[in-house]
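LOG
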Amino acid sequence: MPKITILPISEQDLQPLISISKKTFDETFRPDNKDEIIDHYLSTSFTEEKMKAQLDNPNSEFFFAYSDKYVAGYLKINISDAQTESMAEDTLEIERIYVDNRYQKQGIGKQLYDKAIERAKNHNIKRIWLGVWEHNHNALAFYDKMGFKHTDSHVFRMGDEAQTDFIMTLDL
C-alpha cells in the first residue's frame, strides 16, 4: 500500500487543484447526468479565477492527499461566511472530499475526513455539516459510517437541473 500524505494546498498548486477537481467531479457525476450539463459545469465552476478566489478566502482550506508523489484526492473545508449555506458560527462545512477513481478503496477519503475533523477541533467547532447528492450512494454510505445524520436537504443547481442534496451533520 502506498504512503498517503495530506498537505495544505497553496496558490502555487492552482493548476493541479483545477485538474483534480475536474477529474474527480467528472468521474463522480458524469455517469448519472447529461454530458452537456457536466461539460458546462466543469468549464464554468473550476476556472482559474474561481478556484484562485476560493484559495484566497481565509475561511476556506484545501488539502491534497498524495499517494507517494501523485495527487490522489483533495479536501475543501469552510468556516464562517465561506460556507455554502448560512449555518451557526460554530460549524464547519466539508464542501469537498474527492478521490481519484484510481485511488479509491485505499482509505484516502477517510484520511481526508480525519484532516477535516482535526481542523474542526483546531477551530473549536461543535458541528460539521456537508451536502451529499441524494444519488451519490457511496458518499452517503461513507458519511453514515462516520456518524453523520441526514438532517435536512437543499437544492444544488447543475445547469438547468435542480438536484437534491441531503444535508448531513455530525456533532463533535
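LOG (cont.) second protein
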Amino acid sequence: MNVLHTIKGILVSDLLVDIPAERMQLDDSLRDVYGLDSLGYVELRVCIEQTFGITVDDDDFSPEHFSTLGGIQTLVEHLLKDRETVG
C-alpha cells in the first residue's frame, strides 16, 4: 500500500479537497492549501485510523504531524512500522 497515494485519496474522496491528488505536494498546508478546519482534521484522523488500521494517539494528533501532507505521511509510516514491530 502506497501511504502517500492513500492519504491523497482520503483527502480527495472523503474530505472533498478541491486540489487534484496529482497536484498535491508534501509541504502543502492542510489548513491553508486544502482548507481543512477543526472538523476536517478530526475526520482525517478517523479516516487514517480506519484505512491503515492504526491508532493516532492524542500526543500524535498535533500540529507537528497534522500541518502538512508530508507530516501526515511521516506519522502514518512511523505508526505502521511500530505496528509491524509489535505484531
